[in-house]
Write a structure and sequence with these properties.
By secondary structure, this protein is an alpha+beta fold. It is built from 5 helices and 16 strands. Strands 2-3-4-1-13-16-15-14 form an 8-stranded mixed β-sheet. An 8-stranded mixed β-sheet has the order 6-7-8-5-9-12-11-10, covered by helices on one side.
């Protein structure tokens, strides 16, 4: 069967302020701001993209920062933790760095033969750093973080579900994932070639409190597909599975389709091309506010309403 789903593409979450969001993800975690644009559906709000040097699929964390947005609540029927891959030897470095900036974290724990460091961003978004030597991707380094210690990209996402079977059925029968491990109430699936950036963990929480959307919660998770052609094929499979899926939406840097999985989490399938250099040279990624052409006539108005932000190296 033709490979239609490669693994994770991006995760998009909600935040309560743009500058503090930039400070956490570029300043503390050391990701690169690869695109500064707007929410195409709400142009008075930024859409900020962070990732590796080029914003490769499987490294991209994105945010809609609504100023003053009330904090949400993690719970069932949500993507509750987004995990990034770090080299095993850098675990101590990251613990020291988080302590340096007063970012609380849990004591490292073993999970599925890996060491996991759990923390929250400034809005309470669930983040994990997973120490592994099985990720050969190159991290984005800056003046404070050596590339050898830098985040490599996504490791996995965790979905918290009251009923796991329907979501597993969707992932395995339609989205080409495979169940590869189970431990307690956690089931791990992988897609494509496997490894970091392809894992989806599902945690069974039959009686858990339902999550509420707000700052510090995930809006949606996107899966990677190679082209418009493979996207159309996977869209047909999703429709045949009985799901309501949107038409293709042009997001400038990728094309997208959306639908909700049985537990209620919003899924997206995004194409890898055209990528973030479509409107900005690779060396200049994230330095200017980029607008889709249909909003260019309103640039002055849009810019005047957005909070000024800058990338600081801590």
């Amino acid at each position: 069967m033709e490979q239609l789903i490669n693994g994770l593409h991006h995760v998009t979450a909600l935040a309560s302020g743009a500058q503090k969001n930039v400070d956490f993800y570029t300043g503390i975690l050391g990701l690169r701001l690869v695109k500064k644009t707007i929410n195409f559906d709400a142009p008075d709000v930024y859409h900020l993209y962070y990732g590796d040097e080029t914003g490769s699929p499987g490294t991209i964390m994105t945010f809609f920062p609504y100023a003053g947005l009330t904090r949400g609540r993690r719970g069932v029927q949500q993507l509750t933790y987004t995990a990034f891959s770090i080299p095993s030897a850098s675990l101590g470095f990251w613990m020291d760095r988080l302590s340096q900036f007063n970012v609380a974290y849990r004591k490292p724990e073993k999970r599925l033969d890996e060491t996991v460091l759990r923390l929250e961003d400034f809005d309470g978004l669930g983040i994990e750093l997973v120490a592994t030597d099985q990720d050969g991707r190159v991290g984005w380094g800056n003046q404070r973080i050596d590339p050898e210690k830098a985040i490599r990209g996504f490791h996995s996402v965790t979905l918290q579900e009251t009923k796991v079977e329907p979501t597993i059925k969707l992932l395995t029968e339609t989205l080409q994932h495979r169940v590869i491990a189970e431990s307690g109430d956690r089931i791990r699936l992988e897609a494509g070639k496997g490894g970091s950036g392809t894992y989806v963990d599902i945690v069974a929480t039959p009686t858990g409190l339902r999550g509420l959307q707000g700052a510090g919660t995930v809006h949606h998770v996107a899966f990677s597909t190679d082209s418009d052609h493979t996207q159309e094929l996977i869209r047909s499979r999703i429709e045949e599975g009985g799901y309501h899926v949107t038409p293709v939406v042009d997001r400038n840097y990728f094309h997208s389709i959306y639908f909700r999985e049985p537990g209620g989490v919003l899924f997206e399938v995004a194409t890898n091309p055209p990528g973030f250099s479509a409107d900005e040279a690779p060396q200049n990624l994230g330095t200017e506010l980029k607008l889709p052409e249909w909003f260019e006539p309103r640039r002055k108005q849009i810019e005047s309403g957005l909070e000024p932000i800058e990338v600081n190296v801590f």
